[in-house]
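Dear colleagues,

I hope this message finds you well. In preparation for our joint manuscript, I am sending the DUF2479 domain-containing protein (Ellagibacter isourolithinifaciens) sequence together with its predicted structure, so that both groups work from identical material. I would be grateful if you could confirm receipt.
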Amino acid sequence: MPTKAVSLNVDKSGSFAAQTVRISQGDENSTSIVATILDGAQPFDLTGKSVRFKCELPGGKVFVDDSVTVSDAKTGVVSFTPSVEVAAAAGKVTGALFEVFCDGYAIHTTKMEIDVDSTPTVANGAVCELTMLNDYRSGEQASWTHPTRSGMAFAGWYKDAALKYPCSASDTEGAAYAKFVKVADLFQFLGCSFNMSGNVPAEYTTPRFSYIMSVPEGAALIENGWYFKKVSDPTKPDVRSLSYNNIVQTGNKIFSSLTFNKVPVRLYEKKFSTKAFVKYTTADGTTVEAVEADYDAFTPAEIADAVLTHPMATQADKDYAAAIKAAVTQEGAA
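The corresponding structure tokens are as follows:
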């Protein structure tokens, strides 16, 4: 369990830095608070004393909890794991402190703030958000929607904030955790190349945009491909093109390439702009499409320049690229 160390003081005559602890909403075991209680600059001896936690919950309710462990009485160290009541609602838990009881009276420490985060970060950069299933899963399954986040792809509904227990298609009501993963983690643009077979670079060529694509853990791929701009008029809506040449890789990944067949010389200096997509079904039956945030855009002439300077290009590769550059020069002179 993650721990958060704080220092609190029973001598409140001085000025003290603000102490903040962040925990995950709905997960009472997300963080353990380890507090060193001081008396001025010295440890406050807790020998023979009892300690309890006290705070004001979002909404104004005062909450106290006796389940504080004195870990080291001589050095004033206590530990406390926020309970389900503290983690129940997103927001600021204010006025949080420890009460130390001795000889029938209570001594209060300085205060800390507990930030109950509704979007905790979990493993591998994923985040989750507690929300209501019935806001997204009413009616027929084909009509189900899902929450969205900028730069993130929805990766399924889960029953716990640690994202260990996925929901099923039969879960349509009540609260659940929406998992999100970074869209950028689903796509890796490998670069551009030419398909030299059957092409005459002085007249036409076939540029190729290659990618590694993946779906979130536990999801099943429906289809994948690209959105690309029409070179003749980039202002028109993107063309959606499915991939039919997937090569399965390890780790939920596939390799795939988009080729633009027999591009004529007059378009050798035009940008070809693509962005990849994957469409998948999560374990709970939600259909999702994730799309690259930005276009990968290159002209055939730019690809030729890259080939000519590439340390691993063969002579045949370089001769082909040089023929494209010569065709561009000739086209410009015509």
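For the figure legend, we might mention the following. The chain has three domains: 3-117, 123-183, 185-333. Residues 131 and 175 are 5 Å apart (CA to CA).

With kind regards,
E.M.
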